[in-house]
Design goal:
43% of the residues lie in helices and 16% in strands. By secondary structure, the chain is an alpha/beta fold.
Length: 243
């Protein structure tokens, strides 16, 4: 059984990835921070080779504890860094240090710590058998999110840089590292920014004429986790309807 960890996996894109991974025969660990009921309902749906584990990934001690619990399942094959947050829409003048600390702790520090722990276990130079890391970035890293989420966009830009650098750092250790930049997708994250209907508003302005669905992101993630992507590393894929 190949086990993968999907961070922030209880809803939205993370849940879609978890469902498709289970369908493809992976054992799936769904990480969540607060949504215990949703995470447990999801793993019940996924079947016997699924587990929900709580951890606040902005805290190093909790990341370490999460991976120690994963060790009890067997070797880790895949890490999908999906957990991310954004805050209320504003321009730069409305962003303070506390907000920056919250956004970067979850969107940058957490994924980096998870990558560190995954590499420790996957690296062929440390006795591992290799593995795959997929980072869920955002098209905001390229577009900048002016007037809405400059801090979120900057945090995702950092995740892109992490993807490129880490891919080159561990290429000779049997580990592939890639990223996806989803565009506007129908998920609950827009409500966190104060505009639940943002996907509906922006959809007609996208070249394909609509916003995306979580399942349309999950398919590419599963390809990157498959043997078909064995020569792909350090790549960043835009999945944004042509935006």
């Amino acid at each position: 059984m190949k086990w993968i960890l999907v961070t922030g996996g209880s809803r939205g894109i993370g849940a879609a990835i978890a469902r498709l991974a289970a369908q493809r025969g992976f054992g799936v660990v769904v990480n969540y921070r607060r949504r215990v009921a949703e995470a447990e309902a999801l793993v019940a749906e996924l079947g016997e080779h699924a587990l929900a584990l709580q951890a606040d990934l902005s805290r190093e001690s909790e990341v370490t504890r999460l991976f120690e619990r994963l060790d009890l399942l067997g070797p880790l094959y895949g890490l999908v860094n999906n957990a991310g947050i954004l805050e209320q829409q504003t321009d730069l003048l409305g962003i303070d240090e506390q907000r920056l600390q919250r956004v970067f702790a979850t969107n940058v520090f957490g994924p980096m710590l998870c990558c560190r722990e995954a590499v420790r276990r996957m690296s062929t130079k440390r006795g591992g058998t290799g593995g795959v890391i997929v980072n869920i970035s955002s098209i905001a890293a390229r577009l900048g999110s002016p007037g809405e989420y400059l801090d979120y966009a900057a945090s995702k830009g950092a995740l892109d840089t992490l993807t490129i650098g880490l891919a080159r750092e561990v290429a000779d250790q049997g580990i592939l590292v890639n990223a996806l930049r989803p565009g506007v997708v129908h998920t609950e994250i827009h409500a966190s920014g104060g505009e639940p209907g943002r996907a509906e508003r922006i959809g007609p302005m996208i070249p394909l004429g609509r916003s995306g669905q979580p399942e349309e992101i999950a398919g590419l993630v599963l390809w990157l986790l498959s043997p078909e992507a064995s020569y792909t590393t350090g790549a960043i894929f835009d999945v944004s309807g042509g935006r």
